[in-house]
Amino acid sequence: MMRQFLTLLTAATLLAASVTTPVVAQSPGPLRIEIDEGVIEPLPYAVPDFVADTDAAAELGRNISRVIAADLSGTGLFRELPKDAFISQITSFASPVQYADWKAINAQALITGAVSVDGNGRLVVQFRVYDVFAGQELGQGLQLTGTQDGWRRMAHKVADQVYSRITGEGGYFDSRVVFVAETGPKDQRAKRLAIMDYDGANVKYLTDSSSIVLAPRFSPKGDRILYTSYETGEPRIYELNIGSVTRRVLPTQAGTMSFAPRFGPDGQTVVYSQAQGGNTDLFSMNIATGASNRLTSAPSIETAPSFSPDGSQIVFESDRSGSPQLYVMPSGGGEARRISFGQGRYGTPVWSPRGDLVAFTKQSKGRFHIGVMRLDGSEERLLTASFLDEGPTWSPNGRVIMFTRETQGASGKASLYSVDISGRNLKPVQTGTGASDPAWSPLQQ
Amino acid sequence: MKHKERGKPMTYLSKTVILCAGLALAACSNPDRLGGAGGAGAGGAGSGAYAPGSAQDPKSPLYFQQTVGDRVLFLVDQSNLSPEAQTTLDGQAQWLMANPEFNAVIEGHADEQGTREYNVGLGARRSNAVQEYLVSRGVAPNRLKVVSYGKERPIEICSEEACYAKNRRAVTVVSVTPVS
């Protein structure tokens, strides 16, 4: 009665035996969403407009509370109570909360905040999270300071704190997605690299549309991107600095095609595919020195590599068995073991940031699926099904997967979707143009 | 309509090829071309009865594209050359041997069934199969270059086998541009 345990079906907690412990608050409050088996319903919460003492700050306060609500409700784990249901209004950040008024409308959580602009023109955001039915604050009030332009990021940071305090897990809202923006018909499609906030805001283009670009990936710090471009006429791999929007081609072997580059967790090692004489193998390069070495030497196609979070292993796609399947090998090369054994073709494996699961694309009976399995291939679960779903990427906390969905036929278009690893909360990600090949950044610092 | 894939300028091709594609478009709009292309090209060789560079000129890239045949098709997931493909490639090899000033880029393509990066690998296999065959028929390796487009450049856009079959292709694009 005094608290609600909201439990949700996900594999991750079921499978959590071998996983690093999620980030748990030092003193977890009584209000808690246990992301676990058994869906009840989203947790009701209220987030009144953050209070402010000037009109300009008041507008920022309203906008910030709207972004927080979009983040929380967008997870499917929380449900916002409408303002017209409120009995109390929050007019002062410092005044005591009237718990009874929030209990009466069944707000389990209450988020209050204040927005001001300091003498240097910096935006100051303060917030508190309340466990209404326990009649106490959940964690401590916090203050964030940043530029006024950065108000969306500050809202995402508040939402990450709220999410984290209630679920006991890391958040994912203050993050970005790099993707391939697509325009034009299927047989004349123009592609350019673009970056945006995880929720589709602040889209910025990183390349023009003069060359095909494929499958970008973030560096571990989120400051650089690896991708494949046809700038020189054939596929080659590039490193792009996001801050300066400058790029360089990586020194792969002349006379070969290179593609599918991925950073290792050290931010220096890059694994990629190199095609020569019709054969595609995996290679590794130190991008500081340009020194490269071969990781596989099979007559089959080896591609779509992904490092384990500790950098010790690589999961990749190979058709050495006759059809594309998933394999794991040491990151320096060596014996590979096959992990996918279900019916169909498996591709684009991506190791989860928690290390517990691999997300993949599966083709079976003319349909495409995004799925997850454990690293030993057990407990495979398909999360989606459509004409063409492809290329999963993990949210920084390993709870949500974003991917490309392409529709069928002559007018087919690609767009981004996200889904919980429970298979719930499937929804489109707004990007403005067509979009494919998303890659999710780590949480921003 | 039936020649739209040839007439459509593709931004990623070299200037030479774009020029040729433009010529193809002009040729396609001429209602007399289809009837005349094969016979006049063969019969008029060396006679000067055709415009240089036209589809009737046996030394032209257009002749290579339309009369010799610039592409071979593949089965799902395969890079084997069918007897029909080998016949086409025999013609390509003869043409390249007879026209040593031309080089060729062999573009490998896949249909949309398959993941993006895997299809780049598959296109590499297909273009390489063509390259090896042409070399085995006497074309100097340094005149040939391969590039895989994976599933990025379909010429047919329906999501049915009729379209997929035409998209699983390797296209030999000839030009006087050096390839190495």
Question: Short description, anyone?
Answer:
The complex is a heterodimer of chains A (445) and B (180). Chain A is mainly beta and 445 residues long.
Q: How much of the residues of chain B is beta strand, in percent?
A: 5-15%
Distance between the termini of chain A: 38 Å
Mean pLDDT of chain A: 91
DSSP helix count of chain B? 7
How many DSSP E strands of chain A? 33
In sequence order, what are the helices and strands of chain B, one letter per element? HHHHEHEHEHE
Strand order of the largest sheet of chain B: 1-4-2-3
Q: What is the subunit arrangement here?
A: heterodimer
- Helix percent band of chain A: 10-25%
In percent, how helical is the residue content of chain B?
40-55%
Q: Using DSSP, what is the number of strands of chain B?
A: 4
Low-confidence stretches of chain B: 1-46
Structural class of chain A: mainly beta
Our count of helices of chain A gives: 4
Q: Give the overall form of chain A.
A: elongated
Q: Taking Cα atoms only, what radius of gyration of chain B do you get, to the nearest Å?
A: 16 Å
Structural class of chain B: alpha+beta
* Largest Cβ-defined interface: A-B, 49 and 41 residues
Radius of gyration of chain A: 23 Å
